[in-house]
Amino acid sequence: GVAEDDVRTACEPEALKRAFLDHLLYTQGKTLEIASHNDIYLAVAYTVRDRLLRRWSHTSSRHKRHGTRTVAYLSAEFLIGPSLGNNLLNLDITDALRETLARLGIDLDELVRREVEPGLGNGGLGRLAACFMDSLATGEIPAIGYGIYYEYGIFFQTVVDGWQVENTDKWLRFGNPWAIHHPEWGVEVKLGGYTEHYTDDVGRFRVRWVPEKTVWGTPFDTPVAGYKVSTVNTLRLWRAEATEEFDFSVFNRGDYLGAVNKKVTSENLTKVLYPNDESHQGKELRLEQQYFFVACALRDMLRILEHRGLPVTEFPRAFAVQLNDTHPAIGVAELMRLLIDEYLVPWEQAWEATRATFAYTNHTLLPEALERWPLELFKSVLPRHLEIIYEINRRFLNEARIRFFGDESRVFRLSLIDESGERYVRMAHLACVGSHAINGVAELHSTLIKEQLLPDFYAMWPEKFDSVTNGVTPRRWVVLSNPGLAALATEALGDEHWIRDWPRIAGLEKHADDAAFIERWQRVKHTNKRSLAALIRDETGVVVNPDSLFDVLVKRIHEYKRQHLAVLHIVTRYHRLKTQRATDMVPRTFIFGGKAAPGYVRAKLMIKLITAVADVVNSDPEVRDLLKVVFLPNFSVSKGQCIYPAAELSEQISLAGKEASGTGNMKFAMNGALTIGTMDGANIEICQEVGAENFFAFGMSADEAQRLLRSGYYPRDLYRDDAELRAAIDLIRGGFFSRGDAGLFEPLTNDLLNEDRYMLLADYASYVECQDRVDAAYRDARQWSRMAVLNCARSGRFSSDRSIAEYARRMWHTSALPDTGHG
Ligand code: 26V
């Protein structure tokens, strides 16, 4: 038999079997004979979770004992992806459990494949937060991720008649075995109302916030295990509930339904993730969501501080709070409020503590994404915070006036309040003044922040500005998603150290000219391509040739990301095939994926354009398999895990200066895809690392693009002068891909001819010419694979382990707290 305790912790096959069957019976109430797929999945998940819990409690008590600084990563989004495979990997029990379950007739890999993923993020920013949580745990840095437990994640995308249709993502329908609800750590959060200024009984000036309503926040804790270490950190996501079952004042007046309704409104707070990235709308509920989770997080940190027996003045020594974009920037004002109003800390001291606590990461330069809240809206939700922001601003602008003597226009630009028209609170400015460090997410991006986004802040505090290039976790993006490559790497490198020390992947470089290695590399890629081909067939019905070049563009759909530039190239190829019988063309499969914000009409039309071109091209017998185009619906973390390993060409074609970093670009490179890309974001650094001879660079630099725009950009002249470009645009606007409906794509084509903000036409010729060079390179399969190996081998910088090490040293002043032995 298996000892009592071993049922929860032991990892031998016998103990795992007993644990699984126990959970099946005592948690799910089923025997194997009548268990559903979901029962089995949950019982397996609980078995795995048990094995995390011992380490989890050891980690928290170790952190408490040592009192080291804990990173609090505040993010409105955590796009963690499926957990089962990742936890098995990090606990190192995949093989034992697979074997155990196989003996019971259960296929572990199928459970892993079919797991529902929580879509609690939009894209890059949310996924970065998840990679960072993995690297923090693996690096054994004490950390808590704070965010929102949305009931509905990012919508589920289907494509109907070529158009995106949004469906709700009820991800909790079958239960979430990974999170533990802790109502006992609930927090009350105030909203709305007004403030009262008064003198208390010992003569101190005080402020009382009289809220219009209060909501109750309770945390759902998900353990985050590091890779083969005993550290298990916490992802703590908050759900809003009604404070009381009924509002009795309303109830007593006999308005039962009104009272229940009020409860429903409170619960609406964390109901749904806003699905528009990069486009800010001043929605009250969104502001409430942001304040809600930040207020819960800071209260929670104060509770922990108290639990550790430390005074509130120790806050900055106990916590380093990282603001993932401005969504949690209200935390600056909230911490000030807590310290001043509730703990009666003097302003100067509170301000010093606040600045020592916060650091701010910017993730976008697009003006429409910068958060600014209409003053009246802000005041109605957070009246006390507005007063505090006014006071922060008053002191800050006084300092600025002295620093920039006589330069009132600069003071005006620096203000936390935008007063150029309707008045707004500028969240990026609040984040800047309230933080000791500000960083961009790639070198170019950080430079542009200093020179263009926040030049006045840079002039004032140059020492605050830093740059940390993004990274992604090789555990999920190589080991889990590309087991073939992982096995090959381990064999070639002689051990598995590369999994926790990704720069060691450089050791593959010496095999780049080894024919036997290259052959195995190609077999791995081909296997991955066949799996993706099967997925494409299942999801779209399109049959693609796994011997064709897999050319992939997956990311959110956006004009600045220029998916329609890829379409112009495809249409150009199609036109060549129809007019020139260009039979020496390399067979290609163009694979697209990504979601458009539901209200972003142009982006939805871009999806329709992709699918419309796909329909025509795929059914044209003359094209055969020289050209296939697929739009794979509902791009997600799980889909990414199938796509990146199968890709051969990674499309990173944003207008230079617009993509802050990109992280998909890194996932592709690690999996041995070559990049065709602009000199934008982290593409620049990838090109630097892998060598220009192993990278297909095209297009204008950020500088060139800006200069052209300023000197007068006339896209119609480019259209007039380039016959291939003209042919491509004319096919689209003539209705060739829309059954003669010439009007359908006009919003896109007219824009390209008249404004073309993202300068597709300026980069078109360079892009198409570069794609011809891709063809030439792909014809030499051996040479192509050599370049692919070098891309992977030289991607050492792009692990999020490196990013986290930089944040820890330069902004958080934290270090690892490794587990030495037990107890
Ligand atoms: C902005 C907004 C605006 C208000 C409505 C909801 C919402 C949700 C998310 C965002 C943030 C978008 C910013 C973002 O995701 N940026 C991406 O961050 C990646 C990680 O740093 C980076 O690689 C991408 O280049 C950048 O676009």
From TrEMBL:
GO MF terms, alphabetically ordered: glycogen phosphorylase activity; pyridoxal phosphate binding
GO BP annotations listed: glycogen catabolic process
Catalytic activity, EC: 2.4.1.1
N6-(pyridoxal phosphate)lysine, modified sites: K667
Catalytic activity: [(1->4)-alpha-D-glucosyl](n) + phosphate = [(1->4)-alpha-D-glucosyl](n-1) + alpha-D-glucose 1-phosphate
Domain of life assignment: Bacteria
Function noted in UniProt: Allosteric enzyme that catalyzes the rate-limiting step in glycogen catabolism, the phosphorolytic cleavage of glycogen to produce glucose-1-phosphate, and plays a central role in maintaining cellular and organismal glucose homeostasis. Phosphorylase is an important allosteric enzyme in carbohydrate metabolism. Enzymes from different sources differ in their regulatory mechanisms and in their natural substrates. However, all known phosphorylases share catalytic and structural properties.
Enzyme class of the recorded protein, top EC level: transferase
UniProt keyword list: Carbohydrate metabolism, Glycogen metabolism, Glycosyltransferase, Pyridoxal phosphate, Transferase
GO cellular component terms, semicolon-separated: cytoplasm
Family (UniProt): Belongs to the glycogen phosphorylase family.
PROSITE patterns: PHOSPHORYLASE (PS00102)
Name of the protein in question: Alpha-1,4 glucan phosphorylase
Cofactor(s) in the UniProt record: pyridoxal 5'-phosphate
